[in-house]
Amino acid sequence: MSEDTSCRTSRDFSPEPFDANQPLIVFDGVCVLCSGFVRTVVGLDRKNRFRFATAQSPFGEALFQRYGLRTDSYETNLVLVGGAPFMRLDSFIAVMAELGWPWRAAKALLLIPRPLRDWLYERIAKNRYAMFGRKDSCEILSAAIRARVIG
């Protein structure tokens, strides 16, 4: 897969400084499934705690490198909560837990052994473009999301 540089263009907003105390989701900005997840989190995050960055942005790429993730294909998202990194299905669980009840019930997924959780996540991640689609460029559609994007 070739590197997509369309997400590295200038944006029409000023990024705010990174506050490590606020949860952060770094996601594949061209993935329809990943962008849909971000829109869902924005709708459920009534306290506006979560911040977002595309993996293709310089900031997102630097975080992926810091945590040993590939920067030529973004087959996981990276979630930072309380300074701790979460990847694969654990990132989804961490986000849901931060959103409170009833979403916190997703922690029940931790009962699935990690190898099986990772295998399930990887099956979806490797096929996400075929199953859900891919955008030609990173699109941050709503002002609610744009205001919470870093980098």
The oligomerization state is: single chain
Count all strands and give the number: 4
Q: Provide the spatial order of strands within the biggest beta sheet.
A: 2-1-3-4
The average pLDDT score comes to 81
Query: Between the first and last Cα atoms, what is the distance in angstroms?
Result: 23 Å
Estimated helix fraction: 25-40%
The DSSP helix count reads 5
Radius of gyration: 15 Å
Which features would summarize this protein structure in a list?
4 strands; 151 residues; 5 helices; disordered N terminus; four-stranded mixed sheet; alpha+beta; 37% helix
Give a structural overview.
With 151 residues, the protein is of the alpha+beta class. It has one domain (6-146). Helices cover 37% and strands 11% of the residues. It is built from five helices and four strands; from the N terminus they run E-H-E-H-E-E-H-H-H. It has helices at residues 32-44, 58-66, 88-98, 114-132, 143-146, and strands at residues 24-27, 51-54, 78-81, 84-87. A four-stranded mixed beta sheet has the order 2-1-3-4, with helices on both faces. Strand 3 (78-81) and strand 4 form a beta hairpin. The radius of gyration is 15 Å and the shape is globular. Residues 1-6 and 8-16 have low confidence and may be disordered.
